[in-house]
Structures
1.
Amino acid sequence: MNKRIPLFSVYMPKAVDRAILRTLHSGYIAEGEKVKELSRAISQYIGNPYVVPVSSCTMALTIAYQCAGIGRGDEVISTPLTCIATNIPLLQLGATIVWADCEPNTGMIDPKKLSLLISKKTKAIVVLHKDGDLARMNEILAIAKRHKLKIIEDAAHVFGAKYRGKMIGTLSDFACFSFQAIKHITTGDGGALVCKTKADYLKACKLKWFGIDKEAAHKNKNIWMDDIELAGYKGNMNDISATVGLAQMPFAKKIIEKYHSNGIFYDTLLGIKRDERNYPVFWTYTLLVEKRDKVMKALERAGIASAIVHPRNDRYTVFKKFKRSLPGVDYYSARELSLPCGWWVKKEDIKQYAR
């Protein structure tokens, strides 16, 4: 094989060229009409009106955690098998992270082990949909409802995915999407928080910009003369990023279908069966392999990129005080390997290197 197949590749339609120039020379490049347009486009796509575009998925998670009422001393159940962006904001809010063990075959939270982790201090459960596949949401939501806990979905890898026919972003209290450079849809860098209730949406609108909701009614023409009751962030998206996202949205369905189609093709070749009621979007195609280093070297020689995209968080010193026994995580993390699965990958390539 002469060509190299990367693990990630940025999709950038030609339509973005003129659109960016128009925005750059419009005289307004901060958060403005383009951000509003992108918010409406995402709302329409996933079927939820409560969309808050932000500067990153990390910011979306941070705001979701605050809207969920997470603060110092609260316990939050989360997974170590994720980007550190999922868990660092919990540290910064002073929460105690309780690591959930994972299903050894999926790397995602095992609902059967959740109830044992819940205490009087538990405030929320953070659910990662790993690498474009989907966690067992029905079971997790049922547990959360029984214990009156908030659910925050880290949906960085699953924009456009469906769980049993329902779009991700319509299931739980909060869903956090990433539009960072190498995601299905990109704004260069950016993200979106999607809320279940209008009250959380309105609070999130304030938290993403210094505690001020610019779209709300204001007593004074100069909004800085109004009172600020909530300490917020500088976490808004700008019109430049939103313009990139808007240029991509007409292609979203096509791009996501390609990821899905390639992932299902891998499944067919490898004899893997999934829940047919779901629509995963395979940000990468992640599988478990023995002798991983040997396999990675063989793939490299063949010109195929592979990686352990997100090493387990509990290996880092910053999380050392939360260490606990996690046999499922031990098994999965020692074997997981991600392969290219996106719009740039052809089925002929998959046939060649999935043997």
2.
Amino acid sequence: MSLPTVPHPPRRITYWTGIWEPQREAISKEVAWLRSSLAPSSPIVSFSSQPSRFERCGRGVRLNFNRWYALRAAALIVERRGAVTHVFGGIGTSDHFLQLLGRRPLLFTVVASGTPSARVMYSRVSHFVAESRVLAKMLVETAIEPTRIDTIYPAIDIEHYAPRTTPTAKRFTILFASSPVDSSEIDGRGIGLLIELARARPDIDIVVLWRLWGDVETAARVMASRMPPANFRVERSDAVDMSAVYLRVHATACFFAAKVGKSAPNSVIEGLACGRPALVSDSCGIADLVAHWQAGAVGARSVEGIARALDELLRNYPRACRQARLLSEQEFDSRTALRRYSDIYDRLAARPRVSALAP
């Protein structure tokens, strides 16, 4: 996917994140997009359950969770190559980075909620980007000064993800496209609720797009054990062009539990840009935006609550489609996000460097 770039002399940024799968995983895609747009020669260090691997062409280093000392070495060596250190992670789940980094001004993009760390863990962070208002509020409640926080939603190319045709599915079809790596997250991600919604509403179809990674076979067995009805379908695919997938369906869905998954799921945001309204539970990090813009429907995180929200969406569907696109143009345009990140990089790069860190 081609994304607009911001003309600027080459920046020196080091990126630090979890799983590194830029063709499949949403946070990885965001990091890859920022790097290619604003700092194309910058290195990326990931620390996750993936096997350790050095990617010379991709200028990346994958480190397994068991390679703690290798991460310490990367922090000492790699961070000094940049003018700004940029960490992506969740609240309370990025302490390993915050403990080791900070020799350069540190930007922390918070993508998911969780149990906040002790405030001292955030002392090395120069500035925060929250990917939803919910996350920004959580940071403020952790005693982070509001002046140190920008809210920037995950950004997309709204020209690529754009309304083009009416849905091709004959029956009203809802898409869920945020499958977890680990089958233990099936209920936390709301997939159990999707099965029960399909059972309660035989008048609609629910399609779950399952990426070809992680514990695929175990997840399939778990879902099969719930005896889903025929109108609940799982499609195993690493879709190359997700915009074409959204244009097949009528709406997207996200019923994440609180503190599970991304606060602003990319599949919902991309669907909105394609003019596909969102059916979300009130625990979703962008439920406030969907409700305010009437770009879908929001319900309590239960079968009854979601079913009521579905009826609301069906009643107001044509308007919700229009509002979905307007919301994406206002909040998710990659050109706006790039300008804002560019300004933050420039401000942080002008700050003094720290040559050594206190233990």
3.
Amino acid sequence: MPEQTHRIPSLDGLRAISISLVLLSHLGGTRHFLISARVTDFFELGHLGVRVFFVISGFLITNLLLQELAKKNSIHLLKFYFRRTLRIFPPYYLLLAILFLAQACGWLALAPRDALHTLTYTSNYYPERSWYVGHTWSLSVEEQFYLLWPAVLLLAGRRRALWAAGGFVLVSPVLRLILYYAFRGYAIGHTFETVADSIAVGCVLAGARGWLKQQRVYQRFLQSRWFYLVPLAVVLASALYDRPRLYIFFGFTIMNIGIALCIDWCVTHDTGRVGALLNCRPLVFLGVMSYSLYLWQQPFLNKSSAALVTQFPLNLILVGAAALVSYYLIERPSLRLRQRLEARLFTRRMRPTDQPAVSLS
């Protein structure tokens, strides 16, 4: 959930909706919360919110990489990884440090290999992880995407990389179904190969958006009232969770494509009523805070716990307080440090003997 220098309209508002879905999902079933877990679990709101994050991430990162490629005919991989590191690592590893300290004090219990998998961003391949770090599976998927996708663009080039992403979207339903029958209990929807098509759809949208603007049929559909069936289809597909074969074969893809269409619609119609809502200050602030909120919601929104700190509304207040501390004391200082270091490390004038950034031509 990285930031951007030149913000794309509506994306922060969409992030706000995404984190709200996750929070609502995890609030369901906690003591004194009005909505039962049956309601939030029926539509799998948490997974739907994470899926929106994934599509946004693929769209945003690919958009940034393609802009750099178009401007410089190259991608500075070291700078990319440097920026991601100082954006994501400090708040994440602070959370882990506090959880490990709490375990050492006997305040909570982590699973045996939680430390290994969370520290290495591989918890999406560790289904036995404890609730306190349960949400790190999605952060692992994101980190694996950051490591892989720029290299794919580097080696394959723009056109072939986007075709590869589109091909992965097409074969993913079959791959999930094969894994479902071959390995019962396989963590489908958590491991990278079974969920990365959500990110790939966002990548394809970023690369194809210019072409889509020239397609009259698509633009007419985007402008028509029939488009409102798209978000409805996304919600209904999410409700297929209790029918695993339909869910992993049809539901995933319907949600991915539907979310991508909604993102394109929202970015295109950023001046209408919906756009005004998505770009209003409270929603934008919530979207900016979404990473910290996502990091800290899991320890407090625990329906299996009877502790005071996990009871509504105190649990939600504590999530907000922890997220604010993380954002203002960790995230923002890290971003300022990144800007200073980036100016020193990557903006010096190149001498004739210097090697250019990795070329994709």
4.
Amino acid sequence: MSIVSQDFTFEPENEAIVGNCYRTIIPSQQSSYQLGDRILIELPHSHNTMLNTQASWCNITLNANLTGTNVASNTTDIHLSSIGIFSCINEINLISNSSGYIQQLRNHQQIIAFLLSNNSSMSSTFASSINSGIPLVNGSNSRLNDPIAITAAGGIPEQKFSIPLLGLLSDSMKQLPIGMINDNLTIELVLCSDVRNIFFSGKGSATTQITGGTISLNAEFDADMITLSDNSYRKVIDASKNVNGIVSWNSSQFHATNNTVSIANLDAGTKSIIQFEVGGVKPSQLTQLFHCGFPSALGAGDMWEFGNYQSEDFRVRLGSFVYPQQYVKGSAEFKNSVNDALSQTANTLLNQQTDFNHNKMNYRQLASTETHTSTLSGGVAYNWEKFYDTGQGIDHKGKQLSIECSIQTSGITAVNPIQACTIKRFSVLYSISPNGDFSVSY
């Protein structure tokens, strides 16, 4: 017979995390929305629950009716925007019902257009993917969808989409601990105010032109939830707490602002350097900056088919310093600057626009009577994370930021001004206090 010693120490091994994974559909507050409305979807505070952001998305059902010249019964010229149903969302915001706005992502269409054209893979357009229906950029840099069949009354058959929501809800932090937050979170989607932000005609006013219309839209959040047992949840919380019991994590947000490049600038005939002041948030860790141009006139083509209007020079001025000291010059350096800022190592023939600039540099937005709205897409960027002395970005607080770039005639007369879009990417710190208050700082 064996006798267990009084000094025997028993330490049980930790069990695997015990939990239940399930999907749930969270409806919006209303059953139907129109142009210009705010869609509100409330994520409930759920006991011991994590939201898997990388496997959750927004389902959108769209019904539309278009009006305009020769729109009714048109089967060849009407197209959904190059960025798909992302085109209907002006803003993606996230509100903590107790703490206020956690995320305000404005000019969403321009941000997503830049990312889809410069940082998306071929697989993101396949039929089984979350971005299904968004066309891949082809050799001429035109994201032209297959035409949409229009009914005799100008109606568009019901269309369904599933898309990720940029920002915290598709974040690098895979699990959002909604069970730790003391109140519900609300998703706020601000819809565009004009149907021409969503649909466009492949031909000008001489044949087919959209002048207006209405949409009816329904949205719901398709969430992947993980609910843990009390003991498992306690272990997760204990392992996640930092100073004073606060759970925090680093991530990034985007902020886009617009300036106008006038027709006079576009058609000056000789190269000139112009400067834009860039407003908006001034974070303490500005990590990357992207710059590109978009059309400004509704009804003259796809609003989110952007073109790189600069000719061959670009740099950033922050306070009294310029980055880089010498201008980024020419199409190769422009493309490489974007690759560097997006942590991409090379251009590819499938998903990177290696011919985004050629000797003409870019097309202007064409006249309404032209038969095609193709533009050469591209952009330029600067990355503050690549230098040892800036670490995780550069301090923007208290410093004015401006863009210096050259404008040069392209041989194509400008019909409308161009919106010069500057996108800031910056580090943020999310935190949840012991009493469940959710906050963000930057």
